[in-house]
UniProtKB/TrEMBL annotation:
Belongs to the class-I pyridoxal-phosphate-dependent aminotransferase family. SUPFAM superfamilies: PLP-dependent transferases (SSF53383). This is Aminotransferase class I/classII large domain-containing protein. Signal peptide: none annotated. Its cofactor is pyridoxal 5'-phosphate. CDD domains: AAT_like. It comes from Pediococcus argentinicus. Residues 50-382 form the Aminotransferase class I/classII large domain. Keywords: Aminotransferase, Pyridoxal phosphate, Transferase. GO terms for molecular function: pyridoxal phosphate binding; transaminase activity.
């Protein structure tokens, strides 16, 4: 069949093949899911039911591409309280943050246009960007966010239209971008005429330390598109996210949304609005955070206990993930396929899948939110055993240097 040329570049993550070897009962540190047991099922069910009972007939009608007004008002207020200077008029509901990523790319990227991504970055964003066939520039992550000197060099040398960043508890590294870098990023975007896509689905999930303002807070020229999502703080199946942007960008995003799926489901938007009216979302987030923080702490102490000293890991202050770094020359994809899954039935996401060039081979993402305490203990112990064995074994160490 003659498919569109753009599908040739569409990210083929290769992860399905890797996990095909997994057996039932796998301990998965690979997923990026919230824990289903923490969803406020009863409250969401009640909100849907109350919305249905009390809503006018128009509940089942089309609404608007921007979305259900009362919910946009609530989100505008939440964002203002979080340091984003926005109004209800500049807020649009999306089908998850994922749709926001797609719409921003569609608005900005012609084939071959330059775009900067963090290395590593969110796999799903690469899948969305690939369709628009950009020219990627990878900027490496450091403990306090992307390397700004490297970014500046890229911007000086190349024409770049868009920078994609997850500044809070980044997927996949768990890193938070420092205050200085947030400001520097906006300054560079102003100088080099670039749009910043700030993706913030983990922003509300801080377990320790002090929150930093969103990058959008420092936006002086309307260059930052901010994306939020209910997926990690309420439930992903709602498929509900939001964005805010300056009028210059916002109007185009609204028009593209109309052409893409007309609008987000009115039933969903109205019911989530009902949930927010009847419940204290922040109290729910507080409960969720307590569980995730406990699991993260448990994973960190298990890693300290079981990992060989050559393997490094961070201790993120929030979010869903932490990042393992093995010695140079280690191939985490091979290790996963040849040792970890077959010998232990434990999994993670290998780093090569998380950069467009696939050239980051010695690291891995571990998820701690959707694994129980026992599995964290057992899985990390087995991971440690397999890593010790693999680090003594030449083939896995040597692949990347060949
Ligand atoms: C950084 C990042 N952005 C966006 C998404 C997509 O989220 P949503 O469910 O809101 O579409 C995810 C999901 O894992 C993510 O990690």
């Amino acid at each position: 069949m003659k498919l569109a040329k753009r599908t040739e570049k569409t990210s083929h993550s290769g992860l399905d093949e890797i996990f095909a070897a997994s057996k039932p009962g796998m301990i998965s540190f690979a997923g990026g899911y919230p824990d289903s047991k923490l969803f406020p099922r009863v409250e969401i069910e009640q909100a849907f039911s109350h919305t249905f009972q009390s809503a006018p007939a128009t509940l089942l009608q089309y609404n608007s591409s921007k979305g259900y007004l009362p919910l946009r008002e609530k989100l505008a207020t939440r964002m203002r309280n979080d340091g984003i200077n926005t109004t209800t008029e500049s807020v649009m509901l999306t089908q998850g943050a994922q749709q926001g990523i797609d719409l921003a790319a569609r608005l900005l990227l012609n084939r071959g246009d330059g775009m900067v991504v963090e290395a590593p970055t969110y796999l799903g964003a690469l899948a969305a960007f690939d369709v628009y066939e950009p020219n990627y520039y990878e900027v490496h992550m450091e403990a306090d966010g992307m390397n700004i000197d490297e970014l500046q060099k890229v911007l000086m040398k190349h024409e770049v239209k868009m920078i994609y960043t997850v500044p809070d508890f980044q997927n996949p590294t768990g890193t938070v971008m420092s205050l200085e870098k947030r400001k520097a990023l906006v300054q560079l975007a102003n100088i080099y005429d670039v749009v910043i896509l700030e993706d913030g689905p983990y922003r509300n999930l801080r377990y320790t330390g002090e929150p930093l303002p969103p990058i959008k807070h420092f936006d002086t020229e309307g260059r930052v598109i901010f994306l939020g999502s209910f997926s990690k703080i309420l439930a992903p199946s709602l498929r509900l996210g939001w964005l805010t942007a300056s009028p210059e960008l916002f109007d185009g995003l609204v028009a593209l949304k109309g052409g893409s799926d007309v609008e987000t489901s009115n039933l969903m938007m109205s019911s989530v609005d009902g949930y927010l009216a009847e419940n204290d979302l922040d109290a729910h987030i507080k409960e969720v955070k307590a569980t995730y923080q406990h699991r993260k702490d448990l994973m960190v102490s298990a890693l300290k206990k079981h990992l060989p000293s050559e393997v490094h890991f961070n201790n993120p202050e929030g979010g869903f993930f932490l990042w393992l770094t093995m010695p140079q020359g280690f191939d985490s994809t091979r290790f996963l396929q040849e040792s970890l899954i077959p010998n232990s039935n434990v999994s993670f996401v290998p780093s090569a899948n998380l950069v467009p060039s696939k050239q980051l081979k010695n690291a891995a993402r571990l998820n701690f939110t959707n694994v129980n305490d026992q599995d964290i203990e057992t899985g990390v112990e087995m991971l440690g055993q397999q890593l010790k064995l693999a680090l003594q074994s030449k083939p896995i160490r040597k692949t990347a240097t060949r």
